[in-house]
């Protein structure tokens, strides 16, 4: 850790490192297991992905406060609720390595009490680059007309690293690690960055 970083930022990186170690070890094991296998695609292929994920860590840049997955709501360092996001969509391979996608995000509250409205709803246009073996990197500008259950427009820029492996019959299994950076267009002082593991995969039509 560079010693020149300010105290709050340095503390955040240390906390992030501790929380990430088991997660990254798991992701590395899955990715290494997939290395001998490469999910291939051809230019013109159309896919329908369906993924699910949940935010396991979030840092509020404005308040300089972090929270982990809400296994113990109300406990210090734990989020106040637990939500699961579904990402249905469609993708098109412009080349055998580059895919354009348009998933939607539906986030549903699980506990402590399911919300009457969707906490988050958004569209996630993205570009995916299959750069080596089973690995794909994605850049995802995201637009949320519904945020925290109300009409409250947010924008996010997300980076995603995915390991994919063919399952047969047009199906591909994927494990992804997403880093979302959220901020409000109307008030840039409200910013958060987080970590979201995602599983699922596309089906080639």
SSE order in H/E notation? HEEEEEEEEEEEEE
What value does the average pLDDT take?
A: 77
CATH class: Mainly Beta
Please work out how many helical segments DSSP would assign. Answer: 1
Number of strand elements? 13
For the biggest sheet, the summary is: 13 strands, antiparallel
The helicity comes to 10-25%
Radius of gyration (CA) equals 18 Å
At CATH level 2, the architecture is Beta Barrel
Number of domains: 1
Give the low-pLDDT segments. Answer: 1-6, 20-37, 71-78
Strand content: over 45%
What's the end-to-end separation, in Å? 46 Å
Instruction: Specify the structural class.
Output: mainly beta
Shape: elongated
What is the fold-level CATH name, i.e. the topology?
Porin
List keywords for this structure.
14% helix; 1 helix; 53% strand; 13-stranded antiparallel beta sheet; elongated; mainly beta; 13 strands; Porin; 205 residues
């Amino acid at each position: 850790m560079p010693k020149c970083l300010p105290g709050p930022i340095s503390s955040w990186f240390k906390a992030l490192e501790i929380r990430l170690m088991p997660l990254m070890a798991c992701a590395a094991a899955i990715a290494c297991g997939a290395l001998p296998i490469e999910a291939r695609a051809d230019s013109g292929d159309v896919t329908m992905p369906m993924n699910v994920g949940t935010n396991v860590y979030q840092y509020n840049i404005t308040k300089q406060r972090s929270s982990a997955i809400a296994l113990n709501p109300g406990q210090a360092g734990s989020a106040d609720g637990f939500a699961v996001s579904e990402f249905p969509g469609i993708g098109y391979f412009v080349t055998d390595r580059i895919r354009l996608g348009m998933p939607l995000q539906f986030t549903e509250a699980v506990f402590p009490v399911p919300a009457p409205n969707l906490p988050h709803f958004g569209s996630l246009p993205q570009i995916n680059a299959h750069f080596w073996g089973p690995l794909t990197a994605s850049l995802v500008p995201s637009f949320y007309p519904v945020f925290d259950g109300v009409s409250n427009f947010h924008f996010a820029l997300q980076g995603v690293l995915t390991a994919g492996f063919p399952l047969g019959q047009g199906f591909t299994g994927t494990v992804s690690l997403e880093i979302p950076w959220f901020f409000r267009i109307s008030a840039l002082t409200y910013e958060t960055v987080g970590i979201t593991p995602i599983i699922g995969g596309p089906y080639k039509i």
